[in-house]
Amino acid sequence: MVPEECRFTKEHEWVYAEDDVAVIGISEYAAGELGDIVYVELPEVDTEVQQMDPIGTIEAVKTVAELFSPVSGTIIEINEEIIEDHETVNKSPFADGWFIKIKMEDPGELEVLFSYEEYQEYLGEQAGE
Q: How far is CA 72 from CA 16, 23, 58, 67, 90, in A?
């Protein structure tokens, strides 16, 4: 997965969709802002979620942040590796540092999310550029 192929939320989650399965994680920007991640809490497999529902907690040295679902559907897999090795999220947010996979109810929900270019513009606006 590369950032240019993902969609993004204002809350800095990314989603990569392949057919009706969405892989979800946090952006490099979010990982950098959080700093060293010390704990990750994720929902159980088979949990049903709606778009922008809270789906987990990321605890870092600096703060605690909620993880939101960019799409609606059913959680089909969680990344056990990041629960055991939190640094994976900081080291590789777009490859090994993904959080969950969701079987999407409506892939059309992806259309309301930022493209990579739009997300970069959003980050620039947030920084006052």
A: 14, 12, 20, 14, 26
Query: Thinking of the domain 3-105, which architecture would CATH place it in?
Result: Beta Barrel (2.40)
- Per the CB < 8 A criterion, the answer to whether 16 and 83 are in contact is no
pLDDT at 129: 59
CB-based contact 96:88 (threshold 8 Å): yes
pLDDT of residue 2: 76
Structure tokens at 18: 């392949």
The structural domains of the chain, with segments of one domain joined by +, span 3-105
Phi, psi for 41 (deg, rounded to 5): -120, 125
Q: Quick one: pLDDT at residue 1?
A: 62
